[in-house]
Write a structure and sequence with these properties.
Keywords: Copper, Disulfide bond, Metal-binding. It is a single chain. This protein has 209 residues and is α+β, with helices and mostly antiparallel strands. The chain folds into two domains: 30 residues; 164 residues, Glutaredoxin. Helix content is 40%, strand content 19%. It has six helices and nine strands, in the order αββαβαβαβαββββα. The strands form two sheets. The chain has a seven-stranded mixed sheet. The longest helix is centred in the N-terminal third of the chain and has 26 residues. The radius of gyration is 21 Å and the shape is globular.
Length: 209
Amino acid sequence: MTRNIAILSGFFLLALLGGLYAAIRFFAPDDQFAQCRASVIAGGPGEIGGPFTLISETGETVTEKDIIDKPSLVYFGYTFCPDVCPIDAARNAEAVALLEERGTMVKPVFITVDPKRDTAEVLAEFTDYMHPRMVGLTGSEDQVGAAVKTYRAYFKRHKPAEGAEDFYLVDHSTQTYLMFPDLGFVEFFNRGDTAEKIADRIQCFVEAS
């Protein structure tokens, strides 16, 4: 009797899983990047990214169409960051260099969350040091805030000490976003991802696009 119940339970579980798989296949559109993805986005990839207007490190007003004209790695940080941002930006630059050796061109993009201190000139010095093709973007408080919001990113400035108004830290999210022209957001990478791992996954997305 117990054996029969176990067998019936097994059949029921298989039927349930099969029905769930069929429902997912029926209601969800085919994902050309399914074999490349390692993350799940609540609401789908379309919930991240969108229009923005910012100032480039050369002082020009640019939009997302000007910047994301090829596969791009987008990171939100600030140049006065004491540790996290330089490490992440350098890792992203290394991933881009690895891909370039394979013949795949990806643009590294650094958007500041600290426009008060990160002028175009400051960003240019920072990005030129990180990678010759890295693009730095700043803007007004409202422009930067809008860009952060459209990427569902986060930042919060700490209140500076009295008399030291130019010395403060900024908390911020640390994901790196992979963006494609026309397609928009396709994947994000976390701090624990190595340059090699990022390069391999980006290569998968590029080949599947």
